[in-house]
Amino acid sequence: MDKQIILAVAGAGKTYHICHSIDPTKKNLILAYTHENIHNIENELCDAYKSVPEMTTVMTFDSFVYRHLICPYEPSIAEHFSCPTFISNGICTIDPPPKQIKNAGGKRVINRNYVKKDKLRHYVTNQGQYYCATLSELVLQIKKGRDSLLKRAAARLNLFYDYVLIDEFQDFRKHDYKLIIDLAKQLNRVMLVGDYHQHSVSATNNSGKPFKKGKKDVGYSDFISELQSAGFYVDTTTLNRSRRCSTEICDYVSKKLGINISSCDGHEGSVIWVDDSATEILDNEQIVKLVFKGADKYSFQALNWSYSKGDTVNAACVVLTDRFEQLDNSDFSIQDIPVSTINKLYVAMTRSSGNLYLMKASTFKKVKDLYIKQN
């Protein structure tokens, strides 16, 4: 399939699949959202081919947009905004001035430093540096005659690369997501891999399209339908089984969170509820504790639910929040729980390749003070 999207489950081996799908003798471009993703991809390529293949390029999405979609077309950008003398001075990671700010009284007012989108200064600082946060937005609106910048860039990329692959595409939102989809439509061969149910988990990029329309969440089947309507072949079977989690854990996640995940049966692991043995589990350094937030304030080894995304541990203890106090009840329902919260718990509950320990909020509160770090 020339334009393929693979929807995976947690632990199915998304990065492994991408790295083992390439022809190392071809010109491949592999993109990912974070530097950690890039590091994992490079390690997987080294495991598969002893080193990153000579003709394969791996980079973050932001680096790709800047290097391939901005820098080569800067004269067109300058012309578009009627700024013929504009010469950029690199890129920065600070956020551009927001449209509104809060005044001293807490009321939202117009920010006098905000620059409208039809001006170059919306996208660059006073020092001529591009705002990283608006790179995709900038690319999407630049045209020269009838041709968009994106169309010209896609033709160039088709000359430079045989295959473009994007990992964790569910992490992209708004302009970044639109840029990926619009670009993918014009590339000769492209594959996107991601887990729908891990969207809205990262600390940033959690609002807006494609997973929300207004205030309404876009469901799994509707999301697939939109991708198919855009001309992509959507594969929901190749990576639908977890290589990390046991059958018992996958079945429990499916039943309680309503997320369809099954196991390759490559690991043994049980779901164990923690009650009287709370301190014993929290003191066990071999068991990684996953808390909703504030992991750094505890004396035991801990990660926030969302920050554990991408990790695999031998055993995990998930400390639940009040919303999930009745998770062990047969009539428990996820109704009225925000999708983003459900997704974060899904991530936390699918980190262990062994046992998954679950601790109620009420149980943790009884011993919590024993584990708060002293300043």
From TrEMBL:
Q: Which Pfam families match?
A: AAA_19
A molecular function GO annotation: ATP binding
Q: Its GO biological process terms? A: recombinational repair
Task: Kindly state which keywords UniProt assigns to this record, in alphabetical order.
Answer: ATP-binding, DNA-binding, Helicase, Hydrolase, Nucleotide-binding
What name has this protein been given in UniProt?
DNA helicase
Q: Which InterPro entries match?
A: DExx_box_DNA_helicase_dom_sf, DNA_helicase_UvrD/REP, P-loop_NTPase
Keyword match rRNA-binding: no
Species of origin reads Ligilactobacillus salivarius
Q: Which residues cross the membrane?
A: none
Q: Read off the PANTHER family from this record.
A: ATP-DEPENDENT DNA HELICASE SRS2 (PTHR11070:SF2), UVRD / RECB / PCRA DNA HELICASE FAMILY MEMBER (PTHR11070)
